[in-house]
Predict the structure.
Amino acid sequence: MSALRSGSARFTQTWAADDWYCMLGKLGVAPVTASEWSAAFACEVQPERFSAGLADVRPFVATFLHETGMLKTLAENMSYTAERICAVWPNRFPTIASARPYERDPRALANKVYGGRMGNTELDDGWNFRGRAAGITGRTNYAWLGDRWGQDLLVMPHMLEQPTFALAGSIHAWEGMLPDRHLSDQVKVRRIYNGGVIGLEHCQALYARGCKVIA
């Protein structure tokens, strides 16, 4: 159970798996995917895990859906064309030729772009601690989340590729990163959680929809 941020009221209602199936569908999740995830949401979205009630749940769900590609991707793919590599990491790959050796080689690319930073020091850390769940990336962040959550994510990073654990871990990370006072400012939420505003429009659209659906 996560440590709650102080100063905000919890919500009291909970939703069954059938409720989440309907809500996820209204948020744009494909029916088959909503069916696969509804039980996990029913299990993990509990009053004691969110310090600011629905003001917490709605932006969290929007962020989680965006970061996981509408619940379809729990681990960063990293299998890119050279052109895409240059677009995502222009400073590291200024030319197509510089990206070509990493084209469609996810492990090599992850170790190249994430190695030597975010606490990644060992040979395969970039790959082992690539982005999972709602954007947990890097050995330092895995260690921080594992300590907060009570799970050894340095040994079992793949836990975050299972729906229930992905949700639980992401909720702990959310509570640890987002002060309550910023929850109503979607730009600030995006900057704090993502480090920038990439994906902001999608998150804002999901949040607006969630304010009507999650009630």
User: Anything to note?
Assistant: The chain has eleven helices and no strands. The two ends are 23 Å apart (CA to CA).
